């Protein structure tokens, strides 16, 4: 019987395990190189900073306990937020932001708050990733044509028609766009060639072929700028640390912390379903991510998260232990030290094609229609979160999504029902039992039903069936009862006076 994926990654000892881990680490390294460089370029920082984050993700986060097989490094999910932060505060402040986020992650892990990230609405996370994907695609479409992108999400979308016209008029832009489009075609088709896919991961194959085509045809397209690994390292100084006192900087730190932690822990849950090895300890994994981000921040590098693309590649390549992810960091370090000039031949439009493809995979295209049919409220939260990120920024968009999820949950749990008895009888009191959870969200409906009761009958209101009643409902029901009693007394006095 052929062994399944889960059988292949069952923990084992001996040289077989080491061989499997070494093989898997090479596969992950080949996947990680173009993604690390592409995320850095898209974030508006030197390409070497992406490699540094990948190295730290392997050597630091990979060596610590938490999740056994998931791989950490720079992620497309934080590209938009990093670019916004670098534009607003400068590259020198990036290290402080990442360092502070890492310290917060360490604190949350030590306080055992990791498990609480599983309570975040899945619709918010999907909406967050969808919003990131949309902004990432919109920005990288400009990079496909070697054209500077506008600053904000709405501006990127609004100027897309101009981008198409300008590209069509420029031979150089058309050549760059053709290289980027070809890269995406290879990314889609390469996995269908099983022999090629086993020999070379799709992202590396696509970037390698694009680089070869540009070199052979001598195309005038922009290439990655290389400045050297040590030159790219910018440890934060005292002036940068002082920026943490600013409100906007703290908001960005919280956004880094929330998004990096949520993406890492959701990735861990997904990776756990791919293998039979030890399950993730969410608190320890949060500590590992925090330690990695603290080191990345001290080096002035990009923030890290666990990345599902590299993690699933690690599992599928047959990794048995955490040694595979540590070794992938070693290979990244060797590459960055010995072959830095290799980065300088990579076309930016090819990396843009890789990231457009990555952004598309962040969009829940297949899940949205079933979600709308089965859980319409969740679909609304997803769409609103994504739209808010596109129209504002990452932090504000996620906050809008979280508030929407809380409001939706409050609405769904605040069911209140009136059980009315005696209404069909000619005389006698009408008995009304209020059941469920009476909150301000259901107050208009509750008062409408009470006001519709006959005004010439006595109404006895029974609130013992309520599981919860907030202050607004309590005050409203008291006011309704007082108004009804006053109306009945006035009607009685009028009747006596007429007699």
From TrEMBL:
The GO biological-process annotations, alphabetized, read as: transmembrane transport
Q: Which InterPro entries match?
A: SLC26A/SulP_dom, SLC26A/SulP_fam
Give Gene Ontology CC terms.
Answer: membrane
Membrane topology qualifier: Multi-pass membrane protein
Recorded superkingdom: Bacteria
* Residue ranges of domain SLC26A/SulP transporter in the record: 18-385
Record key words, sorted = Membrane, Transmembrane, Transmembrane helix
Which PANTHER family does the entry link to? SULFATE TRANSPORTER (PTHR11814)
What is the protein name for this chain?
A: SulP family inorganic anion transporter
